Amino acid sequence: GDGCVHVRVDFDLITEAGVARFRRFSEETADLVVAHGGSLSGEHGDGQARAELLPRMYGSELVALFHRFKDLWDPDGGLNPGILARPAPLDANLRFAVLPQRPVDVEFGYPQDGGDFAGAVRRCVGVAKCRTTEASGAGVMCPSFRA
């Protein structure tokens, strides 16, 4: 059967050095996956996170065909601009780039994060599993801390 590996590497996406490390890791991982016949996308598609790496998997000729198809059906470029055809670099538009570069005082923190709640927030993957509509008292914290 098919295998799908979910990897959570806690990259420093705040500093330039951390973002550069993230880029190197992404490029090297993509090359390794492709070398072994794997796919850079899985259940969630390609999107902004991997589109820059698609030429490594499909080759530049097929990616150029993606661009031609996009131009044919979306000549004004209004539908999902910069996602698959002519994507932004994978290290552009990271959500931490707009945050203040100073420490944030907090009143609450998890021991695993050294008491730094801001650290826990940075590790959030943004899937909103921590939000619940049940009144059962199941909790409102990140699922990784509910276990």
From TrEMBL:
Transmembrane segments: none annotated. GO terms for molecular function: D-lactate dehydrogenase (cytochrome) activity; D-lactate dehydrogenase (NAD+) activity; flavin adenine dinucleotide binding. This is Oxidoreductase. It comes from Streptomyces sp. SID7499. Keywords: FAD, Flavoprotein, Oxidoreductase. InterPro entries: FAD-bd_oxidored_4_C (IPR004113), FAD-linked_Oxase-like_C (IPR016164). The keyword Oxidoreductase applies. It holds the Pfam family FAD-oxidase_C. Its cofactor is FAD. Residues 1-82 form the FAD-binding oxidoreductase/transferase type 4 C-terminal domain. GO terms for biological process: lactate catabolic process.
